[in-house]
Design a protein that fits this description.
The chain is of the alpha/beta class. The chain folds into 2 domains: about 20-185 and about 255-350, Alpha-Beta Complex (Spore Coat Polysaccharide Biosynthesis Protein SpsA, Chain A); about 195-250, no CATH class. The chain has 13 helices and 14 strands. The strands form 4 sheets. The protein has a 7-stranded mixed sheet. Strands 5-13-14 form a 3-stranded antiparallel sheet. Strand 2 (about 60-65), helix 3 and strand 3 form a beta-alpha-beta unit. Helix 5 packs parallel to helix 13 and helix 7 runs parallel beside helix 13 (about 290-305). Bound molecules: guanosine-5'-diphosphate and manganese (II) ion. Guanosine-5'-diphosphate (GDP) binds near residues 126 and 130. Manganese (II) ion (MN) binds near residues 154 and 319.
Length: about 375
């Protein structure tokens, strides 16, 4: 096969019959959905969609995780919707709670303050637990132990193009570790000290601030009088939000983690888990409302070379209120957020046989659009 033309070409450009790719062996991989019993309808819609667009040919297992025991109705309905094996597991209570060293009373006080000051979802205890879970213990769940790769699904997401190749196999053969669709800016009030803590961890562990890590720094936007290093140093010492001790400021860019195809081995490995343990000890999953998306993003930029990241620019993906539409689907644009980190390769994919057709047809037919696409 031809070598890729640049670091992050799409894995596939042209239409193919997915039954050809499906003849190759499967990876050790699973689709994974965390959900509540109350999300039965939306969860079923997601599964029906991913089956129509991908899994009807590849039959990967789907692991459903919940912090509460599953309703028999959920198990019955979702079992009937998955073409591969469906696995239903309950998360241990300790993985869905405050960590040792964080007082629940203090945490609840802080979450009430966050709610009062309008921090996005800052007052929802379950949301904080969810973000902490997805940042750390998700990767070490026994239900995921047999797998090397995961594809994260959520109730209510929608894939608008058929995926006619095996993205796990493509990640493996291209040496990739982390794949995303949409990149955006984080809500600033949710994580004022996150970047400071990540950068402190970096320094304490003698990890270099690589150019890749530094792509997450705000540089050009900074007014001229904040650019000289003594000024930056002062801003760092003053503990400005999103600013490291050295006075470098994070640009809030992150990958939207409701979609991820990534290596479980990387995230359950020592490098990532020790960064997570550091962040967990610092308490910001409760004292602030750190999201798993910026935690993952800062970690992959700190710990991985850029060649191990992949933008699935060929995937049509919708999660309210944002979506990605491949640049070659005629007449549709991408949200500006998608261009933030990589210049938006989706825009230049050219006409590779995509048409606006119904979902689930064989071939890489694509239907993209706004709210209901
Ligand atoms: P948003 O996308 O950031 O608005 O967050 P969501 O509400 O979609 O939550 C992200 C994921 O975590 C989804 O898969 C939800 O189903 C799941 N989730 C969120 N809160 C809970 C919870 O309290 N219990 C369970 N079991 N799942 C949750
Ligand atoms: Mn969501």
């Amino acid at each position: 096969p031809r070598p890729p033309r640049d670091l992050d070409e799409p894995f596939a450009r042209h239409c193919q019959d997915p039954r050809i790719a499906a003849q190759r062996p499967r990876e050790k991989a699973a689709l994974v959905m965390l959900a509540r019993n109350s999300e039965l309808d939306e969860a079923r819609k997601t599964i029906q969609n991913i089956e129509a667009q991908f899994n009807q040919w590849f039959n990967y297992p789907v692991v459903f995780l919940n912090n509460e025991p599953w309703d028999p109705a959920f198990v019955r309905e979702l079992n009937a919707s998955v073409s591969g094996q469906a696995i239903f597991d309950t998360i241990p209570a300790k993985d869905w709670f405050f960590p040792p060293g964080v007082s629940p009373d203090k945490a609840r006080e802080s979450m009430a303050q966050q709610a009062a000051s309008g921090v996005y979802k800052g007052g929802l205890e379950s949301y904080h637990h969810m973000c902490r879970f997805y940042s750390g213990a998700f990767y070490t769940q026994p239900a995921l132990a047999p797998y090397k790769w995961y594809w994260r699904l959520e109730p209510g997401v929608r894939y608008t193009c058929a995926v006619t190749y095996d993205p796990f196999a493509a990640m493996a053969s291209h040496g990739k570790t982390y794949g995303y669709t949409v990149a955006l800016w984080e809500e600033p009030a949710t994580c004022p000290s996150l970047f400071r803590e990540v950068d402190a961890y970096r320094e304490a562990n003698h990890l270099p601030a690589t150019p890749h890590f530094n792509t997450l720094l705000e540089t050009a936007d900074r007014p001229w009088y904040q650019r000289p290093w003594p000024v930056r140093k002062l801003l760092g010492l003053l503990g400005r939000p999103h600013t490291s001790r050295a006075g470098e400021r994070w640009n809030l860019c992150h990958y939207w983690s409701n979609f991820e195809i990534a290596s479980l081995d990387f995230f359950r490995g020592a490098a990532y888990q020790s960064l997570f343990a550091h962040l967990d000890r610092r308490g910001g999953f409760y004292a602030e409302r750190w999201g798993d998306a910026p935690v993952h993003s800062l970690a992959v930029h700190l710990l991985l070379p850029p060649a191990q990241l992949h933008h699935f620019s060929d995937f049509g993906y919708h999660h309210h209120p944002f979506w990605q539409c491949p640049g070659n689907a005629p007449g549709e644009g991408q949200l500006p957020g998608n261009e933030a980190l990589d210049g938006g390769p989706g825009r230049e994919q050219g006409a590779a046989g995509w048409t606006r057709e119904s979902e689930g047809a064989i071939g890489c037919r694509c239907r993209c659009g706004g709210e209901d696409g």
